[in-house]
């Protein structure tokens, strides 16, 4: 599963950061998940709770921030929010749009003590 490997590398990163900064435990992890990232936020959290056992992240809360999808029309250059996977331009009706936001999958912040 995609989410499993993401979480495993996330926890490995936290472990490395903790060692490098002489940190005892991680308190909070902020992660941004785009709607178009291919990752299910709910499943990501479930995976996280499973894999954090007996790691530096054991007591760390994961805060998932959802990044909504936005696209740019390639004909009239309008930027518009994508709802329900509708990629046609609300301005001119063109179907030639390019996703400009929503593919992010990134840890933005880690709190430790
Ligand atoms: Zn347009």
From TrEMBL:
Entry binding sites for Zn(2+): 73, 76, 89, 92
Keywords: Metal-binding, Nickel, Zinc
Binding site for Ni(2+): 2
Pfam families reported for this sequence: HypA (PF01155)
Keyword Metal-binding: yes
InterPro entries in alphabetical order: Hydgase_Ni_incorp_HypA/HybF_CS (IPR020538), HypA/HybF (IPR000688)
Family: Belongs to the HypA/HybF family.
Role, per record: Involved in the maturation of [NiFe] hydrogenases. Required for nickel insertion into the metal center of the hydrogenase.
Protein name per the record: Hydrogenase maturation factor HypA
Species name: Desulfotalea psychrophila
Biological classification of the source: Bacteria, Pseudomonadati, Thermodesulfobacteriota, Desulfobulbia, Desulfobulbales
Gene designation: hypA
